[in-house]
Specification:
alpha/beta; Rossmann fold; Nucleotidyltransferase, domain 5; 7-stranded mixed beta sheet; 6-stranded mixed beta sheet; 35 helices; 12% strand; transferase; 5'-3' exonuclease activity
Length: 871
């Protein structure tokens, strides 16, 4: 798979409503007088996103015309809202027919709003390693934004629909708070459109300032006495219940019972005959023309997946005159013309569509590959002195690896180059990358690659990124393709047995929960669970009022000691998530023929330079709980002749911090190979190492790693469950012990403010416009990133170098063993038993010698019959 799969979730009511009012003055109707404006507008908005995102999964969520759990808790919720206009209501069922004909699933759920379904499926998509886009006209959805969840906010400007994409940083820049904090801002300021009361007299500016300063609604009320304005303090105190009720009303539910599984949302083949008839009936000629251009109105046979992929014709416009693109040559003629560069264009990122260009002289020499790769072309791929240029090279290399075709001298991958120049921008579409690199909008075909390469090489050199690009990122492309080819064997029988054990435990927990509750109920329903906890059992002063309650994990942790039912619910949730996300999720992606899973590794996704993986997301295999660790028992070597060899960097980020800060005390702790957390605890608490308690060490560990992430006294107090003043004193004591660290952190922020970016030891950059924000909370976020990115990014660079060296050493040494996985600071090899000792030594050497720091890089190497045994 070439990249992280996309899922597009659409707020049907919101988009149709916005489209209806945007086209209201156009009086769009067919000959029968049937209004079509909302459908027309919806199609335009959807088709634009479908064309840009090419989602593998899609769903349209609709509201149900019935009260929701919010109405039951607050009767006045959305009171006063006008009903749906008749003209719009009449278009709704036709819109659903169109949606179905286009292969998209419509979903709705009684008792919940469309927003709740969007939130629930966004969570499920993130857990399954999908990149999620939420298309809506409702700003409330911004609270769902996260690392892999982006909100496409639709608005109308001058009568035309406009879509603005929001990620976490965009929300911060726009609103001055993190996405999840928007819920608490609304709790204070209210929302007249939904009749959410909020705190009377508190507006958006004040609400944002309070949440920006204290972090959450809970903390605002915990520090009420610190609020200087008596009138504001009084308003907050008098309307505490209104604030918490407003938060309940404004928070999108992400744990709603999903009416369908995620796999049910995979985009189906378009029913061309039905779609064609509907468009003709509605007389939507321009929409039909656009849909026809997308190829949706011709028969679309379902792919059976039985044919092996092959290389075939790639021209963007096959009917184009050869003169418009260049002279097409035979393979023999083409190979004889090749000199310095070979430009290879896998059309649309699909390795099966190829276009080759020499770009020598005024008119390029072109070759179109159809069917099997001809010997002359294969020789070009394998020619070491011929520089190859591609856009998104990994899928192409993976294809060649699977066919046993060699490939040498990847000189330029434009996707990787663009990512290195600005890791915070998306690099999916060649049109966008071309505009970013060259400042021009050029016709999309193979000829676009040459000016893009020239611009990329110039800008990389200007930014001091050429060495990182050529020695780390480009060689890594091949390594990742090799990892994707190898896959990782998973024992389905082990997963099945674990699944049965977890099912039995879930059933046992359910019985115990029902016994404590006094009756059966749907534990997965937030509404029913809240009623049991706060109304029936009366937890957390939960007297029976119209006020609702959140049942998220933070709330449950806060009341864990109030009733024995809470730990059981927490364990129940852990088990159900483990079963659905990991046991079932992994089982569904095992390739039957090989009994392996083939994860897709992403090089250009994270802003820090770290790698990520999807389908399955092996980065998220649980490691903190014993139950989660057991899943690793299912990951096994190829057969009985193989063994897994695992190597893990020990505290690499802290070692990078010691090196970069130059702090002598921290460096000495690592050079003497002592436990850094015990040493820190002893020094901060003024006791000998042998008198350090487990609590002291635990706090020291939290501070050591927290410092890397720019932790505040508030953040540390929350993590350790101690008062803010105590956390502040601890951090001050820590910096007295490690003065070089405090000075270094300050210098990182100063550098970022002066230059506009943070950088790693190897020159990787992350731009930080947040540092210039007028909003305090946004600047604070920028400062935390300025402190963290150089450390985390350097650690990421080091393990990338290690991966490249391990792969090269295995290849040069003629080993049958293969590198199969990278997870955070860990590398895993599927080794032949006869090579085990050599491979363990090789792995340790390559990782320890990957980069020279002022402190040693420590690597722990183990072997086992499963991934679990390696830990």
């Amino acid at each position: 798979m070439k990249q992280m799969d996309n899922i597009l979730l659409i707020d049907g009511n919101s988009i149709l409503n916005r489209a209806f009012y945007a086209t209201q003055n156009s009086f769009l109707k067919n000959a029968e007088g049937f209004a079509t404006g909302a459908i027309f507008g919806f199609l335009n908005i959807y088709l634009k996103q479908a064309e840009e995102l090419r989602p593998e999964y899609a769903a349209v969520a609709f509201d149900v015309k019935a009260p929701t759990f919010r109405h039951e808790r607050y009767e006045a919720y959305k009171a006063g809202r006008k009903g749906m206009p008749d003209e719009l209501a009449a278009q709704l069922p036709i819109a659903k027919e169109l949606i179905d004909a286009m292969g998209i699933t419509a979903i709705e759920l009684p008792g919940f709003e469309a927003d709740d379904l969007l939130g629930t499926y966004a969570r499920l998509a993130s857990e399954q390693g999908l990149r999620c886009y939420i298309l809506t006209g409702d700003r409330d959805a911004l609270q769902l934004t996260g690392e892999t969840v982006h909100v496409l906010l639709c608005s109308t400007q001058k009568g035309r629909p406009q879509t603005e994409e929001y990620d976490t940083e965009a929300v911060l820049r726009k609103y001055g708070v993190l996405p999840q904090q928007l819920i608490d801002v609304k709790a204070l300021m209210g929302d007249a459109s939904d009749n959410i009361p909020g705190v009377p007299g508190v507006g958006e500016k004040t609400a944002t300032a309070l949440i920006g300063e204290y972090g959450s609604l809970d903390e605002v009320y915990a520090h009420l006495e610190e609020i200087k304005k008596p009138s504001l303090r009084a308003k907050l105190e008098e309307n505490r219940e209104l604030a918490y009720m407003s938060r309940m009303l404004g928070e999108i539910e992400t744990q709603a019972p999903a009416p369908l599984g995620l796999s049910d949302l995979r985009v189906r083949a378009v029913r061309a005959d039905v779609l064609n008839a509907l468009l003709d009936r509605l007389e939507l000629k321009s929409a039909k023309k656009k849909i026809a251009a997308m190829g949706w109105l011709s028969a679309q046979p379902e792919a059976d997946g039985t044919d092996a992929p092959s290389l075939f014709s790639l021209l963007d416009e096959p009917s184009a005159e050869p003169a418009a693109a260049g002279s097409l040559l035979s393979a023999k003629e083409f190979s004889s013309e090749v000199k310095d560069f070979l430009y290879i264009y896998p059309n649309g990122g699909d390795s099966r569509h190829l276009y080759f260009d020499l770009s020598c002289g005024d008119e390029p020499a072109l070759y179109r590959c159809e069917g099997a790769v001809e010997p002359e072309i294969q020789e070009l791929f394998e020619r070491k002195n011929l520089k190859k240029v591609l856009f998104d090279a990994k899928p192409f290399l993976l294809y060649l690896l699977k066919q046993g075709i060699g490939f040498e001298n990847l000189a330029c991958d434009l996707t990787v180059a663009s990512y290195l120049l600005d890791s915070t921008r998306k690099t999916e579409h060649i049109e966008d990358v071309c505009r970013f690199l060259t400042g021009k909008q050029l016709p999309v075909n193979v000829r676009i690659l040459k000016p893009m390469r020239e611009a990329a090489e110039k800008r990389l050199a200007e930014n001091g990124l050429t060495e990182l690009y050529e020695t780390v990122e480009l060689p890594l492309v091949r390594v990742l393709a090799e990892l994707e080819r190898e896959g990782f064997r998973v024992d389905a029988a082990v997963l099945k047995a674990q699944g049965e054990e977890i099912d039995a435990r879930i059933e046992s927990l359910s019985r115990d929960i029902f016994a404590l509750a006094g009756h059966e109920f749907n534990i997965n329903s937030p509404k029913q669970l809240a009623a049991v906890l706060f109304e029936e059992l009366g937890l957390k002063s939960g007297k029976k009022t119209k006020q609702g309650y959140s049942t998220n994990q933070d709330v449950l942790e806060a009341i864990a000691s109030e009733h024995p039912i809470i730990p059981l619910i927490t364990e129940y949730r852990q088990n159900t998530k483990l079963k659905s996300t990991y046991i079932d999720g992994l089982t569904n992606v095992i390739e039957p023929a090989t009994q392996r899973v083939y994860s897709c590794f992403h090089q250009t996704v994270t802003a820090t330079g770290r790698l990520s993986s999807t389908e399955p997301n092996l980065q998220n295999i649980p490691v903190r709980t014993e139950l989660g660790k057991l899943i690793r028992k299912a990951f096994v070597p190829t057969d009985d002749r193989h063994v897994l060899v695992d190597a893990d960097y020990s505290q690499i980020e802290l070692r990078v911090l010691a090196h970069m800060s130059g702090d002598s005390a921290m460096q000495e702790a690592f050079r003497s190979d002592k436990d850094i957390h015990t040493i820190t605890a002893a020094q901060v608490n003024g006791v000998p190492p042998e008198l350090v308690t487990s609590q002291m060490r635990s706090r020291a560990k939290a501070v050591n790693f927290g410092i890397v992430y720019g932790i505040s006294d508030f953040g540390l107090s929350r993590d350790l469950g101690i008062p803010v003043y105590e956390a502040k004193r601890y951090i001050e004591s820590y910096f007295r012990q490690y003065p070089g660290v405090e000075e270094f952190m300050g210098s990182l922020v100063a550098f970022a403010k002066e230059h506009g970016y943070a950088r790693t030891l190897m020159g990787r950059r992350r731009y930080l416009p947040e540092l210039n924000s007028a909003k305090y909370s946004v600047r604070q976020f920028g400062e935390r990133v300025a402190m963290n990115m150089p450390i985390q990014g350097t650690a990421a660079d080091i393990i990338k170098i290690a991966m490249i060296r391990v792969s090269e050493e295995l290849r040069k040494g003629g080993f049958a063993s293969r590198l199969i996985l990278q997870v955070h600071d860990e590398l895993l090899i599927d080794a032949e038993k006869s090579e085990q000792d050599e491979v363990m030594a090789l792995l340790k050497r390559c990782m320890q010698d990957a980069y020279t720091l002022d402190v040693p890089l420590k690597v722990d190497v183990t072997a086992g019959r499963s991934w679990y045994e390696c830990k």
